[in-house]
């Protein structure tokens, strides 16, 4: 860490850096695109985000930018973030204080789902049920997520129950209260989308859970004790055992 680093958010920086590294490990990243962010002030408008052009597999805790969603000079900084990162993540952090962490990727199966005429994820098993009545589909893709498009997308997640947005013709955006919760949700959405896509490929009729059972299962996932925290703890332990420098 350099001497100007705000050490008060070191633990959060390490969590976010670990999430970047593991997302790359799972091949859920894309080139040097896609972004994760994490609010670090009470109002949610100051946030950490990956630097422009940095591959997920190389992100370290000390590399993360800290920017203010309400600072109009952000894109004039010498270390300005990617303009679509500013457009999308800035808009979400500006409009949705409950979205403490925001993760956006073009992972393979989520993007296949986003490419279907009906991009909703039905509850056909335990994992897909996690997102029952908790995801929204954006059917109005208008181009890359610069500021106007980012602001439009943010309005679709105003309901605090909505944790995931399938961005039609684009990818997926997931929000949560912490890095652990959000990454766990991102991981399971990709798994759930893969299950659904592979099930469709069989051409056979699908099992569909009733709304009552799907909602019960989703609530059980919501209340599952320390599951997301344990998931992230183990990811960090695996990275540290390999000598990865994500926590520097």
CATH level-two architecture: 3-Layer(aba) Sandwich
> How many structural units, i.e. domains?
1
Reading off the top of the CATH hierarchy, the class is best stated as Alpha Beta
Question: What characteristic shape results from the CA principal axes?
Answer: globular
Structural class: alpha+beta
CATH topology type: L-fuculose-1-phosphate Aldolase
The span between the termini is 6 Å
The pLDDT mean sits at 95
Number of helical segments with 4 or more residues = 8
* Strands ordered across the widest β-sheet: 3-2-1-4-7-6-5
Order of helices and strands: HEEEHEHHEHEEHHH
Computed CA radius of gyration, to the nearest angstrom: 18 Å
Name the CATH superfamily assignment: Class II aldolase/adducin N-terminal domain
Structure description:
- The protein has 248 residues and is of the alpha+beta class.
- It has one domain: L-fuculose-1-phosphate Aldolase, CATH 3.40.225.
- Helix content is 41%, strand content 13%.
- The protein is built from 8 helices and 7 strands, in the order H-E-E-E-H-E-H-H-E-H-E-E-H-H-H.
- Strand 5, helix 5 and strand 6 form a beta-alpha-beta unit.
- Helix 1 crosses helix 8, helix 2 runs parallel beside helix 5 and helix 3 crosses helix 6.
- The longest helix has 24 residues.
- It starts with 9 loop residues before the first helix and ends in a 7-residue tail after the last helix.
């Amino acid at each position: 860490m350099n001497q100007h680093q705000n050490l008060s958010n070191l633990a959060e920086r390490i969590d976010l850096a670990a999430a970047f590294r593991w997302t790359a490990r799972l091949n859920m990243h894309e080139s040097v695109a896609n972004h994760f962010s994490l609010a670090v002030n009470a109002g949610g408008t100051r946030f950490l985000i990956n630097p422009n052009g940095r591959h997920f597999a190389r992100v370290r805790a000390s590399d993360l930018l800290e920017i203010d969603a309400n600072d109009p000079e952000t894109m004039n900084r010498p270390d300005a973030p990617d303009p679509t990162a500013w457009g999308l993540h800035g808009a979400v952090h500006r409009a949705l204080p409950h979205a403490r962490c925001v993760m956006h990727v073009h992972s393979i199966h989520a993007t296949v789902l986003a490419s279907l005429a009906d991009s909703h994820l039905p509850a056909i098993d335990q994992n897909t049920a996690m997102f029952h009545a908790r995801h929204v589909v954006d059917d109005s893709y208008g181009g890359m997520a610069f500021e106007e498009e980012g602001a439009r997308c943010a309005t679709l997640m105003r309901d605090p129950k909505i944790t995931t947005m399938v961005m039609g013709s684009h990818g997926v955006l997931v929000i949560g209260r912490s890095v652990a919760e959000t990454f766990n949700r991102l991981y399971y959405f990709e798994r759930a989308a893969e299950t659904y896509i592979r099930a469709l490929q069989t051409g056979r009729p699908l099992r569909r859970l009733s709304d009552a059972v799907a909602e019960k299962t989703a609530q059980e996932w919501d209340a599952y004790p320390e599951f997301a925290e344990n998931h992230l703890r183990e990811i960090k332990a695996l990275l540290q055992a390999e000598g990865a420098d994500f926590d520097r």
